[in-house]
Amino acid sequence: MTPPQRQRRVPKEQPPSPPPGPGKQKNPERLFVVAGPDGGERDGDLDLVTLIVARADPPPSATPEQTALLRLCSTPLSVAELSAYLNLPFSMMTVLLTDMLTAGLVTARNPIVRQSVADRSILEAVMHGLQRL
Questions:
Q1: DSSP 24
Q2: Are 111 and 76 in contact (CB under 8 A)?
Q3: Strand order in the sheet with 51-54
Q4: Rounded to the nearest 5°, which phi and psi values hold at 52?
Q5: Nearest to residue 36, comparing CAs of 70, 57, 58, 65?
Q6: 16-41 pLDDT tens trace
Q7: Cα distance between residue 26 and residue 132, in whole Å
């Protein structure tokens, strides 16, 4: 009796890859291309809630990312919002914004932090004013 012969399986065709979602790029650029050769060596004081405001129009030598940042920052926007609008990670945004801060293209300011507890004298003055009404 002869042993049964095995048949080779022929690989099926791979289904086409799904198209990228709305937030994903088809061919993302490497981050070092956007950041430049010394992109990882800078350390900025930027936080997620730091507000960025453009000070100038984009110069002709600006990269596409810098141009987009300057156009978005006509009104104050946080670093987190800019990161979301441009689909770039926070670390990449800090590198770009640090370059732009040193070039004087944008200004950064911390948001106004309100006191957690109101001043007692102000509350008493309001209370007395309301009682007089």
A1: S
A2: no
A3: 77-78, 51-54, 106-109
A4: -115, 135
A5: 65
A6: 666 655 555 554 555 555 555 554 44
A7: 67
Token pair in block for residue 91? 């670390």
Q: Which residue has the tokens 């110069």?
A: 59
Q: Which two tokens stand for residue 112?
A: 């106004």
| 78: enclosing H helix or E strand | strand 77-78
For 53, phi and psi rounded to 5 degrees?
A: -130, 135
* Cβ neighbours, 10 Å, residue 67: 14
- Tokens for 123, please give them: 């509350």
d(CA 105, CA 32) in angstroms, rounded, equals: 21
pTM: 0.55
Q: Rounded to whole angstroms, how far apart are CA atoms 61 and 100?
A: 12
How far is Cα 11 from Cα 13, in angstroms, rounded to an integer? Answer: 6
- The identity of residue 70, as a single letter, is L
